[in-house]
Amino acid sequence: MGNGIQAIHPFVMFFYYMCLGFFAMFFNHPIFLLAGCLALIAVNLSHDGGQAMKQWAPLMVTMTALIIVINPLINSRGMHVWFDFFGKQVTFEAMLYGVVTAMSLLMILLLFVSLNSVLNGNKLLYIFARILPRTAFLIMMSIRFVPLLKRRLTEIQDVQRLKGMTMTQGTLSERAKSGMSMLQVLLSWSLEEAVETADSMKARGYGSGTRRPYIPYRMTKSDRRWLSYLLVAFVMCGTGGFMGYGKIVIYPELGLLHLSSLDWFVFACGMAVALFPLFVEGREQLKWNYSI
Amino acid sequence: MELFNLNHVSFSFPNTDQHVLKDISLSVNEGEFLVMGGASGSGKTTLLKLLKRELTPTGKLEGEIFYKGKSISEWEERQMVKQVGYVFQDPDNQIIMDEVMQEIVFGLENLGYSTFEMRKRVAEMVHFFGVEDLLNAKPSELSGGQKQLLNLLSVLLMKPRVLLLDEPTSQLDPVAAKELVLMLERLNKETGMTIVLVEHRLEELYAVADRIVLMESGEVRYEGDSRQVIGELYADRATQFFPYLPTFARLYMEFEQKPIIAAIPLTVKECKQWIGREERETMPVEAQSNQLKEQWILEMNDVFFQYQKKAPFVLKRFTLRIPKGQFFAMVGGNGSGKTTALRASLGSIKPQRGKVRLNGQDMKKMKDSEWLGKIAYLPQNPRTYFVQQTIEEEMQNVGERLKLSNVTERMHHLLEAFGISHLRTRHPYDCSGGEVQKAALACILLGEPEMLFIDEPTKGMDPVSKQHLGELLYSLQQSGLTIFMVTHDIGFAASYAERCAMMFDGEIAADGTPDELFKGNYFYTTAINRATRETKQPEVLTYEEAVATWAVRESI
Fold it and tell me: Which residues form a coiled coil (chain A) (predicted)?
């Protein structure tokens, strides 16, 4: 566990990310999406100072730029023509559509970067354990094998290299052949060892009756409060969305970009959802600094 | 009260006439600490598995096994799972889940306990073990000793009445092994838990055990109180079991004119009392630096290595020189970087700074093919060596790779010399641990290497096989092979190596002959050395040394 957002019940967090995913894919007003992206950037900054985001930044920037540039070049639907580009009409609508799509995708990417650092490993698995217990258990066991197999493979490589079998030198077919032999050794060795793992499971009563999973997370009062907060904000924002607020018509002709007061209300609800981690962290900070 | 009662139990695996266990009658009493010993293949593990119903191997079982007066097969399944706990040999294989917390509650989940009950038990046991800080770790990040403690913990959470352990310390370094034994002793004394332990390294267990059972080829040969068993062994002159006895007891039985069974020393303290204390001025050892311009076969100068950019250095200013023809052993605790040093000297990892020279040539600048066959490596798990279906095919393959002439002749010679000719058509996985090791050694010696690297060769070996291996390595060295061994078995290093070094915190802390290095240490030494320090007899490291140097030798 941890502080702030890490201490929130995984289910609440999962609900938050689902809401945001809906937000990113449902609304297409540029202001909404821009605000959503900025909110998520702020959320990511609050996790780790943007460390994880930095790794993804090059990909995100290139992707956004490419979509914005390419869409108007290959798509000439729309009424407001900007200029001619080698005989193709570049329209304002296509341009805007590119921007909206790019922001929507960017928002989802940012969402996953955040999800990755908050709902890491077991928390995510815990959510799925409720829905698919067997699959979750299988995934858990498989994850356990990754470092084990990696270590064994290094060991095999060390040994086989001195026998002249290597994957770093020689022709392609030689390398492939040595690689296969090493994998074969890894497989037979691991199978042999896995017999003991199976024994260990049996010895501890696996399959002796119904299994009751251990529940490591408890829904606290504040978790419940946050969940209802998210629920209320999301329902209002969703209803607004279905009634057509926060959306614009792009094709065939661009509609009004003007936002009505009801639009602004839906927008506020959406932001209330998107900025939820910041509220949690902020509240924690305030408590730390100003409580007696 | 009798917990287990074995009534004329015999067992054989399917499709063989050979009995693994022959007519065994044995009982285990409530609250007892029972230790079982014997050579590999003597049926200890099979016997232990028969006591745990879920692990009973397929085969023909004769006779009956009773648990609390009722036949073991009549008990309800979940009851047996709960009441009999089992800890395996390999620390890694028995871990199932990817998180420590998930792992320790695994058994409880299977038995359908409520989360409340699980929390309660975890809170209590984790505190008793003092491993709170490990709860959120990944099992792959733990050391071997921590893993084995975790395995013990997850079994204990099911609150078993009896705990069965199959060589739980064989994969651990001496310090971690001692810790585990201490934990078992504490459990036995404080909670009255019944413990049945199968083990090779019996030395310190004689003092802990209530009863010792020694097995040989499927039969119980000796059974009883530690001292009584030792007495009987000497009365019968059962020399095949002598390596399983604590060194103190052996010395006592050999040197005492009229040995009394009740006075056999089992601990360092008792041994010191028997020999008699004598204050002696301890001289700080001056290692003789052999600055002779010898021909170095392996030179490592100021080697630095880290696995990741921001990770701490595993090797720091690591310097090592091994002259031609030396048997060099490096000891050190888990995580001191021994294995990393070995891998660096093999060229498996490239150090960030510093040079590794083999025969005067820089290893970084050499191609793999250049040292092919010149250096040989016997890994911790020799099974990783074999790619082919049989040992013979493997050797042929090695011969082809190294383009050797007269492969068949050399092969016969080596197999003969190692006494494994009968295994040549076997698959390496069908041989015992010691046999595979010998087979792998035979394969790598086929190319007549100049230098042999060995990683932890004595892991999980019984004392007799250990002795065979030591003698084999010694004779190889005598015939001119340079050996670089990494081990945490100090007794083994002291008996066979010519020069030893102790590794600590990424560099070699001390380097000298076994005598210079190990005599006078508290932990990094053999038990017999601790017992003979400041006594009337000369300080020794091994039993053989004592026999050779001690003054009064009256045979019994």
Answer: none
